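WP5 quarterly update. Target: Probable peptidoglycan glycosyltransferase FtsW. Source organism: Alicyclobacillus sendaiensis PA2. Length: 465 aa.
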Amino acid sequence: MRTERHQPDYVLFIAVLMLTGVGVLTVYSASMVYDIHQGLAPDHFAIRQLLAAVLGLAALGWCTFIPYHFWYQHAPKLMLAALGLLVIVMVPGVGHRSLGATRWIGTTSIHIQPSEIALTALVIYLSYLLTKKLPILRDLRRTFRPAMVMVGVTIVLVFIEPDMGTALCIFLTAMVILFAAGVPGKPLGITFGTAVMVGFLGARMAEYRSSRLVAFFHPFQHPKTSGYQLIQGLTAIANGGLTGRGFAASISATGYLPEAYTDFIFAVFTEEWGWLGDLGLLAIFAVVIWRGFHIARYARDRFGSLLAIGLTASIIVQALINLGAVTWLLPVTGIPLPFISYGGTDLVMNLAAIGILLSVSRETELELPEEDTLADIISVDEIRATRQEAARQRTRSTGRAPVARLANFRTSPFRRSEARDRGTSLKQADRPISLTWRASREAASTKRRDDRSRKPGGPFRRHKR
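Structure tokens (predicted):
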């Protein structure tokens, strides 16, 4: 397998450009009437979205030509900076409050949303942590626990803004990264089940969240209150039909659908371009997802794979939650549709994330690896060199001969001391060292056959009735 720096993934780049352009045009058509009613220029929000797109494309270009290992070196600093912004937004007089939530830093006209920055920073940090802790990945106390502590702190800071939708995105994205990294399924399942219960309790704590749950189950019983936005969104989707009404011809955007240019912009898009337009938009999203996972599959190392998976998953999670809310499959959570909904910080951070993906794509392998590099436990050469050096040091201090082979580690007289030095239990130390998940399964299968053959009667012994 050869790796060398080459051109970025232009298919992904073109798809993202198309989504960004569609987003700017749809924001214009969805906000035009609202701007006029507010005494603003008809293209007020569209111009702001266009400026955010230009800034985001600049960030995309910069991230594309910065080697992605730059993020590995600065991951802890980025995470601390993101947490600092989440704390600063809570300071009275600093955080900008709107619609009952304090989620922004800055003035009314120019502000940033730290929770969007925290999502990308957390993806980078988890990719860094689960790469650095690779030799002890199965030690949950030293890998899973610190990862979940960082995830929990981020979610709590976002939740108290309050912004439960973004907190949900952060949690689901973190679960995807942990699963892809090879964390055992049992702790992930327990964590997910606990989070579901805590999330349900959190939704019941606030009246507006409870009303959203009621509107989800019984929207037509509250057509003028909590169910109004959902009903208007469904009406817009139904009015779109097969081919739609045409550009800037949406009736729902004339004042029937509240803030149609933000979370429910997909309903306006459907009304204007119809269900065929929806298929085209979803096809472009599918291309982005396909190229993201393709980059992860061909990445040259574990950090690049986890980074590509996490950034792609963050876009998938946001899109699924938004589309599910607009189409009545999920409760309304206030999550924007990536690249389409109005929102400067969200657009800039998503474009920057695509830039990091393109940076990974510039160093992908030129051919498909024979083994899954994401499942590597540890480099054989690295562990062999480490063991040999440790054996030489013990030989000098004790006068005993070093262990000759890694395969004999189980019967080595130094097994206890090596396990103590590595901070693992004897049970973990007995496990064979393998290069990949596939190789570890083959080694385990061979070990079971050998154990059966050593027993009286061999593998074909008869059991007593």
